[in-house]
């Protein structure tokens, strides 16, 4: 085992010893109270199966037959979730075939960050993760279930489903995705067309044509953003069946995996002899495996929030220094857009998750001795070096490739794209921030330039359109933290800042807001904590201050005379205009309760 991975794991275990022990005690108590529908009154139970057919009713009257609760994030707004609409019927059919039952326990809301990117709706996006967690709990609180299947893929949905399911950690839980859409217009070409539009060189018609060729059918968008980082995480944390992450929707293999996930869920309930509750799968080693997988694959910066919040829900305490220290020893093994030209379909074809896990296990960078939902397919994480295929109609697993099909997309640990994972924590007199450098060219990783201060992304775009940004600059977009306006992604700024960078200007973005997992080429110091509304020093920066962002040495600072800097006040902000409209008025309690970015920007507290 790599000594740093071992040391970080130990310190996470030590840091969370008390909260983890409280969590486990609660889960053990819940486990003892099972089988769960057995504690319901006749009235409760009759309500619970009133709408079932006679076969399911008969199965549910006793407590010997497994009942699987389906929690689904289906809607037509996310191309990644559209295929899920047909899953419940297939799951119910697969359950009945093995003498079990499946019931649709509840639906959870799901926001497409692509539809809301740059729009007011994006200011609900991060909070929607915790709403999804609560909705998952509402669904499972019927307490009719011996296991759960979570159907979801995208950004805040998988983290929300997992946080919610962790409050039912005594249940076995398997995640069931729909897979990526087939490759369309290459993501890099899409980004180039956007920059032409940002410069006024093409019209909306040409832009929409390009966007529609990139995002063209059901399935997850093919860039390596937060959604596909989620799929990687569910695999490497042992919450998918092996090889589930990147099989395309509407294929026989996809359907077979959905059915096999159903069968597996029924096999690992407390009613059988292979009981595998979620709380045993999601432990400190699984969280460290998740962070290592995120770093090795150049995954989304949003997981410096979501993985922290997920860990907290399991009583585990993770800090950005854990990410930072693991990044220093985790080689970068993939180049998937925005970290390269390839997309997740190309990554999957080059060897995908089975080869990535094989390489990281062989490098002593992953804990192999973990509990997963696929214990029947192999010991611990070693089951995940296997990949599924159809032998006629039969789903089987075989060892995945030992060599990459394309070392330009998926490298071996002996010849990585970079010796480190490209995620850094930045320190200085502006607070703590994270930056992902895996998509930033070496020559752009240090920027020292005058600040241009904005209180919204639209203000920045107006300045760009009026030609006021044609110079070296550090764009400060402040009052974008969770308490201020829900910590939106500011990915809409990427094309404009990319144009300035391509013109040869030294450009960087510094904000207490977020960027998309799909953001890349422009250096961005994000998630600054404390946020401006909490008195964070980022609020003190004025136009013209010299700002230094040095991703190599982890520095982010305003080079202002110390006495002057100490004398400056953080200005107050009039945010009334962004606290109404598009439902934002309903989220005031969450803006008040939400904790800081480094604690996961969540409204839930570990000590609850
Ligand atoms: O974190 C992420 O991965 C993003 O939120 C992603 O889900 C979002 O949809 C982007 O906005 C898509 O990229 P474009 O906006 O460039 O299409
Ligand atoms: S990846 Fe992003 S844009 Fe694509 S469906 Fe998911 S949330 Fe929407």
Automatic annotation (TrEMBL):
NCBIfam families (alphabetical): edd (TIGR01196)
GO BP terms: namely:
D-gluconate metabolic process; Entner-Doudoroff pathway through 6-phosphogluconate
Q: How is the cofactor bound?
A: Binds 1 [4Fe-4S] cluster.
Q: What is the lineage of its organism?
A: Bacteria, Pseudomonadati, Acidobacteriota, Holophagae, Acanthopleuribacterales
- Taxonomically, the superkingdom here is Bacteria
One example GO MF annotation: metal ion binding
- Residue ranges of every copy of the Dihydroxy-acid/6-phosphogluconate dehydratase C-terminal domain listed in the record: 409-601
Q: Which UniProt keywords apply?
A: 4Fe-4S, Carbohydrate metabolism, Gluconate utilization, Iron, Iron-sulfur, Lyase, Metal-binding
Q: In which pathway does it act?
A: Carbohydrate metabolism; Entner-Doudoroff pathway
Give a GO cellular-component term: cytosol
Catalytic activity reads:
6-phospho-D-gluconate = 2-dehydro-3-deoxy-6-phospho-D-gluconate + H2O
The record lists [4Fe-4S] cluster as bound by 154, 221
Q: Which family does it belong to?
A: Belongs to the IlvD/Edd family.
Residues that span the membrane, as ranges: none
Record InterPro entries = 6-phosphgluc_deHydtase, Dihydro-acid_dehy_C, DiOHA_6PGluconate_deHydtase_CS, ILV_EDD_C, ILV_EDD_N, IlvD/EDD_N
Record's PROSITE patterns?
ILVD_EDD_1, ILVD_EDD_2
Would I find Metal-binding among this entry's keywords? yes
- Domain Dihydroxy-acid/6-phosphogluconate dehydratase N-terminal residues, every copy: 65-376
Report whether Transcription shows up as a keyword of the record. Answer: no
Cofactor(s) of this protein: [4Fe-4S] cluster
Listed name of the protein: Phosphogluconate dehydratase
In its UniProt entry, the species of origin is given as: Sulfidibacter corallicola
Which HAMAP family does the annotation name?
A: Edd
Query: Which EC numbers does the record give?
Result: 4.2.1.12
**A single Pfam family, by name?**
ILV_EDD_C
